[in-house]
Amino acid sequence: MSVCETWHGALxxxxxxxxxxxxxxxxxSQGSTPxxxxxxxxxxxxxxxxxxxxxxxxxxxxxxARSLLQARQYGFHVEAFSLGGRxxxxxGGYLNVxxxxxxxxxxxxxxxxxxxxxxELISLCAPLPWNVQWYDSRAGVFDEHFKRQVRxxxxxxxxxxxxxxxxxxxxxxxxxxxxxxxDYALIAALIERDDVASIGLIGSVSxxxxxxxxxxxxxxxxxxxxxxxxxxxxxxxxKLTDKTPYAIxxxxxxxxxxxxxxxxxxxxxxxxxxxxxxLMTDSTTTTS
Length: 288
Fold this sequence. Notes:
Layout: H1 7-17, E1 21-30, E2 40-43, E3 48-49, H2 55-71, E4 75-82, E5 94-102, E6 107-112, H3 116-125, E7 130-135, H4 144-147, E8 152-155, H5 160-165, E9 172-175, H6 180-190, E10 198-201, H7 205-217, H8 222-225, E11 228-229, H9 245-260, H10 273-281
Parallel strand pairs: 6-7, 6-9, 7-8, 9-10, 10-11
Antiparallel strand pairs: 1-2, 1-5, 2-3, 4-5
Helix pairs in contact: 3-9
């Protein structure tokens, strides 16, 4: 249990850093309870911040929160406690805890190249809920203000093979370095990984035709080369006439938004209405 950070400090930091977490709030209280409604704590898979009062019910709350994180069940959930029954605590009161489970970053993005377009891309990604890994083989190319951007990790210089090998599964990779040879080596390494979510290569149709022919001559299959999207940033299959770095970056980020979009299959959003009515009208009926 962390004692160095308050729940609101941890909540702000975790939201910025994109780490999955649960905000636990005591919302009802009847009889003798360790704390009053409004008490809060924040829970991750490995840490806790602040307290709901301690005791068995708090450990049960932590276990429930971590089960939600492990199962990726995000949204609102209610846990009900009879302190003398379920939790075996002598104070014997009743309370309900609202668990708000946040997924953290919704996607992992890897950008290879810190040229003009790469810089615009990174700036446009800043407000989005993505974890971004940014690579360039040249030393000293990252400005200090980029290094302070949340959910962004800069790698310069980097070792190509190990960097590609250690990308998290389901990463969306974009290749736009200053060197065609480096672009080709990255594409060859990326298509060998079956678990990369998408692979985008900047450049013209003729550049990709050249790369594709070379890859096939070196033994890569049609299935592997078909995973590469090039040129990147096409909108409805059409190319922009505006070739400024910002315009290109804007189309690429728009394309990524579609690629990373995962609509919810839940028909009901938030708390089930019946659970909410019960919670708000009679807390004792849900605490046995």
